[in-house]
Amino acid sequence: MVLQIEDRDRVRTLTLDRPEALNAFNEALYDATTEALRAAADDPAVAVVLLTGSGRGFSAGTDLLEMHARATDPDFVPGEHGFLGLVDALVDFQKPLVCAVNGVGLGIGATILGFADLAFMSSTARLKCPFTSLGVAPEAASSYLLPRLVGRQDAAWVLLSAEWISADEALAMGLVWRVCAPDDLLAEARRHAEALAARPISSLMAVKRTMTEPLRAGIAEARQRENAAFAELMGGPANIEALTAFAEGREPDFTTLPPGW
């Protein structure tokens, strides 16, 4: 099992459960989370979804060992939904989504916050969008959602630098709504999720729809641009060097790449 699901007081808690991999998304976890979000959307007894991670990580993003296999192994078999299916589910999710970032969040473990209605973060957690360090492009409409959420220059730093963002920095720039002591994080996130869940589901969905509907076209266009750029860069010299370095346990060296890479 890669995902724990718990229902209480009209809040469905989804806990990413690959702690040995810091809850990195392999194909199985992408599929399970996608299906869980779709099921929660369709369940009239669920008002709010609370997403968190088990162990020390929120999510270390896409599993890089599996990404390496996908880029280099012609026999690699993808999952049913994959990364794009998860983003589709996030775009289409019409109920409040609360994220409790309990530990490190990389890649989709950070960009998913662009879809969160409320985001809570442990004071010891950190976030990173490692796209340039992997030789790839942004994902999950983050090139559109993050500038709207935190402003252009903070978004530029987050997306271009591949540097760690502390909880205090994330709070200051508006990437998360509250920073909590580690032991208080889940209880605080759940308290707010339950406060929302006590409201009429139809009204919650109407409020979210009116807030997010104006963004849908921009999200779709951003995803097209990002997916095209990602497809162009995936498996390219910079990406292969980054993934090979990860598999070999060393830092990538981009200085030896061909001109323009």
From TrEMBL:
Lineage top rank: taxon: Bacteria
Task: Could you list this entry's UniProt keywords, alphabetically sorted.
Answer: Isomerase, Peroxisome
Q: What are the recorded GO MF terms, alphabetically? A: delta(3)-delta(2)-enoyl-CoA isomerase activity
**Which cell locations does it reside in?**
Peroxisome
The protein in question is named Enoyl-CoA hydratase/isomerase family protein
Source organism per entry reads Nocardioides agri
